[in-house]
Amino acid sequence: MSLGQQLHPHLPFVRRYARALTGSQAHGDAYVRATLEAIVAAPEEFPRDVDPRLGLYRTFHAIWSSSHLDDADDDGDHSDHEAIARARLSRITPLSRQALLLTAMEGFTTDDAAYLIDVSADDVDRLVAEALGEIEAQTRTRVLIIEDEPIIAMDIETIVRDLGHDVTAIAVTRDEAVREAMAERPGLVLADIQLADDSSGIDAVKDILAEFSVPVIFITAFPERLLTGERPEPTFLITKPFQRATVKAAIAQALFFDEATAPA
Q1: What contacts 182, CB < 8 A, 6 or more positions away?
Q2: What's this model's pTM, rounded to 2 decimal places?
Q3: Which residues of 204-235 are buried (b: 16+ CB within 10 A; e: fewer)?
Q4: What is the pLDDT of residue 85?
Q5: Under a CB-based contact definition with an 8 Å cutoff, are residues 239 and 63 in contact?
Q6: Domains of the chain and any CATH numbers
């Protein structure tokens, strides 16, 4: 099997990670393209002594580490999301966020995360704790949950409240979601893709975003469909069935980039 064939199944998930890390589909996908270009240009440098997924993320991290600090200094070429993030970097480092996302969202073990970001396993545990503590301490908001499965909705509500956020409503259809959002504007939306009346959570979010800007995290059992890199797609995505830590990490990262919670 060729290297390209080995890496292909992992591309949607490295896109998910890159988007969450940068807070932008465009920037995240650009880093993934740069990673693939680097692999094509020098395939002999691709790590062959580890699983292809680990090698892919390791190569991504080499690209990220060598470029993102320079990007942050370029005042003429970065998104509003990045500008907001830079205002917070004094309180939480990119390395901390990487450790959190790799373990909680991407499901890597502590040892694998340590390999990917070139630190010890003990350092990964410390960085994850630091990331959760710092991000959760500086982001509090009101959350609209769009989810038609009662047990899942209750679980999400518990996680959201445990993080110190308020829940404005739990909506089960597109129309209800839009109505609830207009009644009390949330600071974050958590949206399932398929809703109770066969309406779409994506359409509900589009309707809401047409009225005001708000960060959104989508929840889906089929993440590959929204991680192609070929069209406008979600920046933050949680895969069903999810772990509580995954939801916490996604919420923290989405709010990290949200202008409404930017420090004064």
Answers
A1: 211
A2: 0.83
A3: bbebbeeeeebbbbbbbeebeebbebeeebbb
A4: 52
A5: no
A6: 3-136 (1.20.140.160), 140-261 (3.40.50.2300)
